[in-house]
Write a structure and sequence with these properties.
The complex is a heterodimer of chains A (113) and B (114). Chain A has 113 residues and is mainly beta. Chain A is globular, with a radius of gyration of 13 Å. Helix content of chain A is 0%, strand content 53%. The radius of gyration of chain B is 13 Å and the shape is globular. Classes of the chains: A mainly beta (113), B mainly beta (114).
Chain lengths: 113, 114
């Protein structure tokens, strides 16, 4: 079985401050991990993924995420938040051999000017 | 431009009616998916298809049906058997056997039952 937990429904951060959106996962076998962003009434946009290799993954719009196997985490980070980063963020996991992604419940990020 | 097109964007239905949501992709992807999104519940998989003329049930397939007659198209029918059909529906696709590949999403269809 595979599962994803996003422990925070809402994250608020001031513009220019670093941001972190948390994600932990549970899978059998090696995990393939993804982050997506969703703006209101829109589809999901891919930000970044971890498949193998370097634990620090860099993605679109200045976002990065760090894979931590011992803590089964894949937190999304950005050094300096922008107001335009305000959106709904989803973490997703696919286990080896699985046919589909399993999504977390999402975290709403609000960047305060 | 390559992408996924969902239509209609907004749809209203009376109780007891079947409705069909369209999903078309020109990315030459083999795999296609339908997800349902409800507030606070994330995305839940309804059906997926890895190849033409084949599809599998996801976690919440009851009350839904799909077909995959063409590689480019994966329509979803919300039947009258679906007890709570009001939701935001998302179609996605990915490359063949691409377990490491990301999903590409359409812009979604919002269904409201009156």
């Amino acid at each position: 079985a595979q599962s994803v937990a996003q422990p925070e429904d809402q994250v608020n951060v001031a513009e220019g401050n670093p941001l972190t959106v948390k994600c932990t996962y549970s899978v059998s076998g090696n995990p393939y991990l993804f982050w997506y962003v969703q703006y209101p009434n829109r589809g999901l946009q891919f930000l970044l993924k971890y498949i193998t290799g370097d634990n620090l993954v860099k993605g679109s719009y200045g976002f990065e995420a760090e894979f931590n196997k011992s803590q089964t985490s894949f937190h999304l980070k950005k050094p300096s938040a922008l107001v335009s980063d305000s959106a709904l963020y989803f973490c997703a996991v696919r286990s080896t051999g699985a046919n589909n992604l399993f999504f977390g419940t999402g975290t709403r990020l609000t960047v305060i000017p | 431009d390559g992408g996924i097109t969902q239509s209609p964007k907004y749809l209203f239905r009376k109780e007891g009616q079947n409705v069909t949501l369209s999903c078309e992709q020109n990315l030459n992807h083999d795999a296609m998916y339908w997800y349902r999104q409800d507030p606070g519940q994330g995305l839940r998989l309804i059906y997926y298809s890895q190849i033409v003329n084949d599809f599998q049930k996801g976690d919440i397939a009851e009350g839904y049906s799909v077909s995959r007659e063409k590689k480019e198209s994966f329509p979803l029918t919300v039947t009258s058997a679906q007890k709570n059909p009001t939701a935001f529906y998302l179609c996605a696709s990915s490359g063949t056997g691409a377990y490491t590949g990301e999903l590409f999403f359409g812009e979604g269809s919002r269904l409201t039952v009156l």
